Hints:
Blueprint: E1 2-6, E2 9-13, E3 55-58, E4 64-66, E5 78-81, H1 82-88, E6 90-91
Parallel strand pairs: 4-6
Antiparallel strand pairs: 1-2, 3-4, 3-5
Amino acid sequence: xxxxxxxxxxxxxxxxxxxxxxxxxxxxxxxxxxxxxxxxxxxxxxxxxxxxxxxxxxxxxxxxxxxxxxxxxxxxxxxxxxxxxxxxxxxxxxxxxxx
Length: 99
């Protein structure tokens, strides 16, 4: 028997042994589980698009180009082709535009 003191409360812990027995004759060995085939998932690959036809956006004072809807386009939003944006800006790490 063990005694523990916890904030001035004495707790007595008595180890117990529980025995479980089963005499049911209908119990059998567990059935073998058939292994399931492993299915590999491939990440979605964005289709290749022509940079001349993709529109991205830049801000008046920024140094990154963005997708439409990026939170950094609140103040200004200047449309530009992906080719032009790549030549002068880096891609935003938040909205991850193509390129």
